[in-house]
Structure formats: C-alpha cells, structure tokens
DNA sequence: AATGAATGAGGTTTCATTCAT
DNA sequence: TATGAATGAAACCTCATTCAT
C-alpha cells in the first residue's frame, strides 16, 4: 500500500483508460481491466472518479484539451489564412497519428444522444466554430474569398474535412476507408494529402 | 400468441431494434427492451436472429441497403456531374432527416476496431468510392475540372462532406454541432445548405 | 397435417428419444431436437406425453421391458443353473452391444435420488432379485453350492457383475474402463469374457 | 462482505457444490443455489471457477483424490493379498457411507460420452487397474490363485464389485437396490457384507 | 489512503411448454 | 388432430461498485 497516487500514476490511469475507452467505448470498456493495466486497485479509481462515466469524462477532457491546445498552437504559429489552414491540417494529421486513442475518445462522443449531445457539442465545438468563422470573416473582409461564401457554412465544411481527417488517421474504420479512397500507402503521403486539401479549400474559397 | 410473425411484425422488430441500437449501440442496447417495445417475446427474437450481434447486423444491413438504394437512385436520375452532386446531396439530406436511426446504425460501424473495421469498410465503402472516382475521372477527362485534382482525393473529400452531412442530420451530437455552425434554424435551410455545398464543391473542383 | 400418428411413427419417436436421452440424460436432452429428428411436431409429443419426464419414462419403460424380456428368454431357455448363468451373460452382452441406448436409459436411472430412487429400484430390481435368489436357493438345496453362501448376497454379487457387464458394453465411460482392464480388442472377446465370468462365478459358488 | 474467502469458506463451497452436483449432476445443478447455500455471492464462485463445469471438475477432482487416498491407505496397511482385498472392501464401505456426495460425483462421470469418457476413464481407472492386476499376478506367481484365472479379467471383476459396493452405499438408486437384495437392515451389516464378499472372491480365485 | 475480493443486479440466451391455426 | 412458432421463466455469467482490512 502506498500513501497517495503520484502525479505519474494518475496520468498513467488516464492513459490506460483512454486506451481502453478509445478502443471499446464507455459501455464496452471494463474498469477492472483498466485498474489492472494501470497497476492500481479499482478502489483507488473510485476514489478519484465516482463512477465509470466520470473516468470516461476525465479521459475525454484530457484528450480534447490536448487536441485543442495542439490546434491552438498551430493557429498561433500561422501568419495568414492560407498558412492557418495548412498548419491546422498538418497539426491534425500529426496529432491523429500519434494520439489515436485521444482521437478515438473524441469520436466516441459523437455517439451520444439527446441532452448529452447538446452539452458536449456546445462545450467542444463552440470555440473552434467561433475561431474558424472569425478567420474566414476576416479573410472575406480582406477581399480574399468569394463573395457568395457564407463564413459559417465554410467554417462548417472546413471543420467537417478536418474532423474526418482526424478520424481517418485515428479510427480503424475511417482509416480503412481512407485507404480504400487513397491507396494503402496513404500514411506515407501526409504531405500530399495536406497539399491537396489546402488547394481544394483554396479553390473552394476562390482564393487567389 | 400468434401463429407466426407477420411480415409487418418482423419489420417492426427491425425498426424497434434499429432505434434501440441506433441510440445505444451494440453494447448499450438491451434485447429485453427491444422485445417489449416490439410486442414480442425475447424468445422469438432469438428464433430469427441467433444472437444480439446478428440482430444488430440485420439492422445494419437493412439500413445500409436502404441508404445505398436511395443514393443510387439519386445518381441514376442525374444527367451530368453537377446534378449528380446536387442530387446526391439532396438525397442525403432527405434520407438523413427521415431515417435518423438508419444513419445512426451507419455511424455505429465507424466505432469498430481491427479486423471488423477492415471487413466493414471494404464491404461498405468500396462501391461508392469507385463510383465517385469514376464520375470525377470522367469529368476530368471531359475537361470539366482542375488539372491538379487527384480524382481519388477529391472523391474522398466529397464523400467526407457527404458523410458528415448524413451524420449532421441523423446523429444528435453532429446535429447539435451543425446548429452551432449554421444556426438553430438549420433544418429549415436544406436548400441553402445544398446550394452552398454544391458551389463550394464546384469551386473546389474549379468547374465553370 | 395428418390424422393420427402411425404405430411406426410412435415407435420412431421413442427410438429417437431413447437415443437423445441415452446420450444426454433427462436434463441434457432437448425435446425440440427429439421432435425434429422424429419428423413430428413438438405439439404431438406433448399430446402423447404430458411432459419431458413422461417421455423419458416411456423410453425407460420400453428399454427395460425389452431388456427384461431378453433376459427372461435366456432364463427360460436354460436347463440348469450353470447354463442359466451362461445364457444370462451371453444375452446381456448381445443386448448391450446392440441396444446401447436402451442400456444407457437403464444407466440414467441410477442417477436419481430420494423417493424416485426408491420407486424405480423397487419397480425394476424386484423381479430379477427374486428370480436370482430362487435360482440360487434351489441350487443350494440341490447341494450344488457352498454352504456358507447366502443366496441373497450371491444374487447381489451376480447381478452386480451382470449390470457392470451391461454398462461396460453400453456406456462410453464403462466401455473405456473395460478396455483399460481387458485390452482394446475386448469387444471381439465376448466368448472369452463369458467363459471367464462363468468359471469365476462357479468357483465363487464353489460349484463342482 | 469479507476481505477474502477463508480456507474454510472455500472448502464449504466445494462441499455444498459437491452435494448439489452429487444430487443433480452437472446439468441439473444450479449455481445460484450453490451460492446461496454456501453463503457467498454468485460472483465469488465465478472468481474462483471460471464456469459451472470448472466448479464441477474441482468437486470431482477433490472427491476422487479423497477416495483414491483412502483406498491407497487401505492397500498400504495390508500385508497379504487376502487382507488387501479385505481392507479395500472395508475402506470402500466406510468411505461410501461417510462421503456419499463424493461417491455420487464419481458416479456422475460414468454418464459422460465420447471423448470425455475416454479422458476421464484413462485418468481415473488406469492406476487402480494397474495395481489390481499386479497384486493378482503376484498372488498367481506365488501359487495362491487358480491357474486359469486371467489377472486382468479378475482385476476387472474385482473392481466391478468394489465399484458397485461404493455406489450401493453412496447412491440412492443403488442403495435401494442393495436393500432389495440384502434386506432393509443392510447398512448395519457391513461386516457381514465384507466377509461374504471376501469369501466369494477367495473361492472365485480358488484361494486356499 | 489504498487495496482488491466480494457483491448482486442485470443482461444474454435457452428450451420446456403452450395454443392459434 | 397435428403443427410449430411463440412464449417467458429461469439459468448462466459479467462487471460496476462497495467496503472490510
């Protein structure tokens, strides 16, 4: 027995749980397995998280924060609208390849229903939607994009493509589908994918 | 008791099960609830489907066939590439609004892992990917689209946007996100959404 | 549909049920399987037998009557005590080899408990025990057997050996054990087995 | 709740299970009843035994070891062939009277079929068959038994009689049959039974 | 404070029996 | 009268959660 879980151990629990939840979802995951693989007792997990769902939530929050920060960084590094898109895509690809389980957590919340869906969506999508809309509005007022384009709509299309890119690298089904569309060697063509997407978006926005 | 489940009752079971599975997934769904809501006994469900997973599969197949046929029709009705895209989008919107649970079934398979993911993806995505690639290749050889555009890549982007549209109408989380991006009245703006998407795609393809 | 089960069909049901019960016992057997393999409906089985146990009972009765008659015949054909034993043994071997499932039915009743055990034992063992005791008593009063031998006790030993012989030919476990004791080719040594048993019994009785 | 099942409790589960399985067999026994009667939860039984069959196996192993040891002791205590037989019979009677449920477990394996029968028989009967054959062979080479007697055959007859003795004391059906042959007061005549059996065997072997 | 074995509600599945046709 | 699909009680087993140590 031990006095208190170290920072490290707590992080380890989250990592292991993220893997288990990422692979099997809330219903399919098994708390006892998470405990065993984390080298802690079930009891201690229930000291930190009052039930399975809360542990899931904690994993989700951590995953989303991590993803959010990564994309945020990409945005801050960029100098103009085009590089913003480009950096976001690069960041999305890199993150999804290296943190599959975190992407999978993100994916699992897309399965929730009713009120929960509302809560999660509001919490998770509000920031990025606002950011993307602003970026596009600015680009538009700078005369960079086509006059007909509704910023909200384009933001939606853009985030759709980004989200699908995340899932295509992180989730097995989407990854397989990715290969069907783009060839088995797709994971070695990150740059090509990014370039194609950027030029598609640029043309879609009628940027010059 | 009844002599035999009528065609109607059998369909009803599938409908009820599609709803239950659509909302809760394979793990979260409860066969007893499905039985009760279908007004049949558990036993009879196990006469028709040898286990929970097979019932899930049956619901999935039915949903995917229905969706597939609907999109197929849309394609056959179209006369050129632009109307093809337009019809597909219209069909996707209409289907997703009217058959939420079937779209949700489709969504659940995106959560599977490993071998299962491979099987499902191959089975489900192969046809449409082939169709889209061919359509675009033809448009390209007709000189209708930008020379840089890789047909496979565009097919992928196009299907991504279509898939997200499906989920945006059919799944609660995606729907909520849809509203965040495009306003609470989004479901009354189907035409606007279609037009915006078509023109975005056209520009993205550099079509004139 | 058909007017009434023919004699043949009824017999067929019993044969199939005897096989199923013989292999799996009352608890392990499945009425629906019996119905299917008998080419009749479950319903008709429940017309003839009010429940699973009654069908089992019917199979048992038939098996035991058949066995009883066979042994009875053997006894009637015999002229003296030694040939009686010899004929009984021959009959037991032949019957068990040719009617495994009926022997298995007999074996299953040895698993019952409490009152049921009392009923069955009284019903089944009373006749043969009486017969064997009388035969031995007569042999004893004829001065053929050892004075110390209690006829009831010998009858018991004799029937024990006969019963084990039945099971050794009819039941898988006992058959395997039989082979362990007497070699893999035991089923080709029926005569040897009979002779050895007869001479063992004769010496055991101190017959000359 | 308790920190961990005590040795005693674990033994108690086996005892209760041995009783339940002994009376009803693998198919007829009910894990929930075993749990209730053992004063533990179902869950804990499944912690110790991964399924019903494994619990059955554990009961069987324990029963057979116990029986085996008891008979082994009897053999080691004996000084010559006659006392060996006598001790074995005494031990069998005593054991079967005091450990009915363990004898019943032994009896249940005689109901298995096919491959399982082969496995069990080989595992269980090999040792004793070898022992008995050796004892008799030795007695024969010492000139103590009749020249015609095949040691393997006699070992088989001897074990048959011993096995039936076990079942006659331990299993309800056999016990009832025992009473039919030897009188209702048979359980007070252990010594008489043993003596009769020994002298029958001795004469059967033609021992002097 | 951590442990981890025990708990037992709840879910899946089977199959003896029923009864509408 | 026979049919055989439907019924639903009951059994096995799992795993989120508890709590004695």
How are the elements arranged and paired?
The structure is a homotetramer of 208-residue chains.
Chain A: H1 7-28, H2 31-38, H3 42-48, H4 52-77, H5 81-98, H6 100-109, H7 114-141, H8 151-170, H9 172-182, H10 190-205
The structure holds a DNA duplex (21 and 21 nucleotides).
Structure description:
The structure is a homotetramer of 208-residue chains. With 208 residues, the first copy, chain A, is mainly α. Chain A has a domain at 64-205: Orthogonal Bundle (Tetracycline Repressor, domain 2), CATH 1.10.357. The first copy, chain A, has ten helices and no strands. Chains in contact: A-B, C-D. At the A-B interface, helix 1, helix 6, helix 7, helix 8 and helix 9 of A face helix 1, helix 6, helix 7, helix 8 and helix 9 of B. The structure holds a DNA duplex (21 and 21 nucleotides).
What CATH calls the topology of the domain at 64-205 in chain A is Tetracycline Repressor, domain 2
* CATH level 4 superfamily of the domain at 64-205 in chain A: Tetracycline Repressor, domain 2
Query: In DSSP terms, counting alpha (H) and pi (I) runs of 4 or more, how many helices of chain A?
Result: 10
Chain pair forming the biggest interface: A-B, 61 and 61 residues
How would you describe the oligomerization state of the chains in this entry?
homotetramer
Order of helices and strands of chain A: HHHHHHHHHH
Q: How does the major sheet of chain A shape up? A: none
Number of strands of chain A: 0
CATH class of the domain at 64-205 in chain A: Mainly Alpha
Q: Mean pLDDT of chain A, as a whole number?
A: 92
Question: In which range does the helix fraction of chain A lie?
Answer: over 70%
For the record, the CATH architecture of the domain at 64-205 in chain A stands as Orthogonal Bundle
Uncertain runs of chain A with pLDDT below 50, 5 residues or more?
none
Radius of gyration of chain A: 19 Å
Structural class label of chain A:
mainly alpha
The global form of chain A is elongated
Q: Report the sheet-strand fraction of chain A.
A: under 5%
Straight-line distance between termini of chain A: 65 Å
């Amino acid at each position: 027995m031990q006095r208190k879980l170290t920072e490290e151990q707590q992080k380890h629990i989250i990592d292991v749980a993220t893997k288990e939840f990422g692979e099997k979802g809330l219903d399919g995951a098994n708390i006892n397995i998470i405990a065993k693989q984390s080298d802690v007792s079930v009891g201690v997990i229930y000291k930190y998280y009052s039930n399975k769902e809360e542990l899931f939530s904690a994993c989700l929050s951590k995953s989303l924060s991590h993803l959010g920060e990564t994309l945020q960084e990409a945005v801050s590094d960029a100098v103009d609208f085009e590089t913003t898109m480009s950096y976001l895509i690069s960041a999305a690809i890199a993150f999804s390849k290296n943190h599959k389980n975190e992407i999978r957590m993100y994916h699992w919340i897309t399965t929730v229903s009713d009120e929960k869906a509302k809560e999660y969506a509001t919490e998770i999508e509000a920031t990025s939607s606002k950011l993307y809309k602003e970026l596009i509005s600015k680009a538009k007022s700078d005369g960079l994009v086509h006059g007909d384009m509704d910023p909200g709509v384009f933001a939606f299309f853009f985030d759709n493509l980004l989200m699908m890119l995340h899932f295509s690298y992180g989730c097995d089904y989407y990854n397989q589908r990715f290969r069907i569309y783009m060839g088995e060697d797709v994971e070695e063509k990150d740059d090509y994918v990014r370039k194609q997407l950027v030029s598609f978006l640029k043309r879609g926005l009628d940027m010059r």
